[in-house]
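Quick one, tokens below:
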């Protein structure tokens, strides 16, 4: 038995579950699922199956369905259970609840009621994709799903164009070709990007290239499975030494070399060490 049943204090336990491989569940997540007074799930069948795989007994407990359309009544019912001293474990269909998944309404209602909100952290497709993509991870923005309408999608991508950080998107396999074309057209074909498909599953695939190549590659071919698209930061290929030096000289008028390097590296999305070396060189000349 890989879990312990022990009394939990009252409150909401947001439990992360695997995004593919069932064995990616944490031991603590199993403890919480085994011990909570009430289990609530976005998809009750998936939750029961996961508990079954790991031998966690329901022991007479009901699994309550809770998703974005459950409404205020279900929130009120779960809040009332916590207020009566019960522990409520919430799992979304896969990954971390609230990350492009339900749970926000329940968590904010619990916080507003002065209840304890805690988590059994674990997998999330966004972090898993960042880990394997090979793009900078020091700064990133999670965007989630872009709007389905092409016009709205284009406007949203345009607003992200100059962010000096890795962008992380979720996308459906049906739309990925179209989405990559829109990314290419707005961000430029030379931007580096990565498509992560079926992470932690049998057919896991990580495809790296620039947006021009990826847009071509995924257009006209049927793609299956779950997908995360990551795009390298703005300026990664266009900032030259002269631009960095100019920004440093400006920053060094009011800051120490080290602070100037940190500020400029952050603003341009560049490694701090690289910028610091340039700053030291400038320091020698002044
Ligand atoms: N809460 C989840 C999390 O923490 O990652 C995300 C739920 S969201 C409804 C589902 C989307 O996550 C999928 O459409 C896909 O974009 C991404 N995703 C989930 N599992 C994945 C996997 N194994 N490989 C690649 N992407 C995945």
């Amino acid at each position: 038995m890989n879990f312990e049943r022990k009394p939990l204090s009252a409150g909401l336990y947001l439990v992360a579950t695997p995004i593919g491989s069932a064995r990616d569940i944490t031991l603590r997540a199993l403890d919480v699922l085994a011990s909570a007074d009430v289990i609530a799930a976005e998809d009750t069948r998936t939750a029961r199956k996961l508990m079954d795989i790991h031998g966690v007994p329901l022991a007479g407990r009901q699994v309550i369905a809770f998703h974005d359309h459950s409404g205020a009544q279900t929130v009120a019912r779960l809040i009332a259970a916590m207020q009566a001293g019960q522990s409520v474990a919430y799992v979304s269909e896969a990954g971390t609840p609230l990350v492009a998944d339900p749970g926000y309404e329940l968590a904010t209602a619990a916080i507003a009621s002065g209840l304890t909100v805690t988590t059994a952290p674990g997998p999330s497709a966004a972090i898993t994709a960042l880990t394997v993509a090979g793009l900078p991870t020091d700064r990133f923005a999670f965007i989630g799903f872009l709007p389905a309408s092409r016009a709205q999608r284009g406007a949203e991508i345009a607003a992200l164009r100059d962010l000096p950080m890795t962008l992380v998107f979720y996308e459906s396999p049906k739309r990925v070709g179209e989405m990559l074309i829109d990314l290419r057209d707005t961000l430029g074909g030379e931007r580096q990007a990565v498509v992560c498909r079926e992470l932690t599953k049998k057919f896991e695939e990580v495809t790296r290239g620039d947006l021009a190549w990826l847009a071509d590659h995924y257009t006209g071919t049927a793609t299956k499975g779950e997908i995360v698209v990551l795009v390298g930061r703005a300026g990664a290929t266009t900032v030259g030494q002269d631009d960095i030096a100019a920004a440093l000289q400006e920053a060094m008028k009011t800051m120490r070399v080290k602070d100037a390097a940190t500020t400029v590296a952050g603003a341009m999305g560049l490694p701090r060490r690289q910028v610091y070396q340039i700053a030291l060189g400038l320091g020698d000349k002044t």
